[in-house]
Amino acid sequence: IVTRDPIIASRNLQFHLNLLSELYAIWQIKLNNNKFVHTTFTSRHRICFNITVNNLPILSLDTVKYLGLNLDKRLTWQNCIKKKKINTQCSFLIFKSIILKNKFST
Fold this sequence. Notes:
- This protein is α+β, with helices and mostly antiparallel strands.
- The protein has helices spanning 6-27, 78-105, and strands at 37-38, 52-53, 56-57, 59-60, 63-66, 69-72.
- The chain has a two-stranded parallel sheet. Strands 2-3 form a two-stranded antiparallel sheet. A two-stranded antiparallel ribbon has the order 5-6.
């Protein structure tokens, strides 16, 4: 839901989540509220309003992992780049140790 007004966006999101909650109750689908995360992507400093599903609040986080990418609420990619850098350094150290073991074993 895209809008410039955060109040309208929160209301629209909450309205649609309420509709989905009604459908889940009809279909007897149980939701795991521990897996819900809410993030508002914006470049402005705005207040994030509380969002609920089945009258239980959804956790609001600054960063979320989606399709293997770590997205922060400002969409600056800093967190994603930092985690990829750490993964690359760990992989490099593992490969370096393997190469050194093979070098001295021959």
